[in-house]
Write the structure tokens for this entry.
Amino acid sequence: MNGMQVIGYTYEADCHCIGCAKARYDAGGFTIGTDGPEGSSLDENDIPYGAEDREGNPIHPIFPTDELQLDDEDQPMDCICGTCGGVILEA
């Protein structure tokens, strides 16, 4: 395990906060692929390693060090949850 904190997830072509991703998982919204590292099946936020969205794409974590999307003027934009609209990472 590394020291990098997961602050959200990407799936279905959008960003999602931890709370919304957990609610989605709890509602059966992800399929589960292979187990993750060291035989553990859940990450620190109780999201399964190897989870896939309804399109069959892997769920990816968002880290505080990730680059933000740029606007039309090449300025960083906040990373916003596509489910609840909350700010995941401020520009």
Residues 16 and 32 are 18 Å apart (CA to CA).
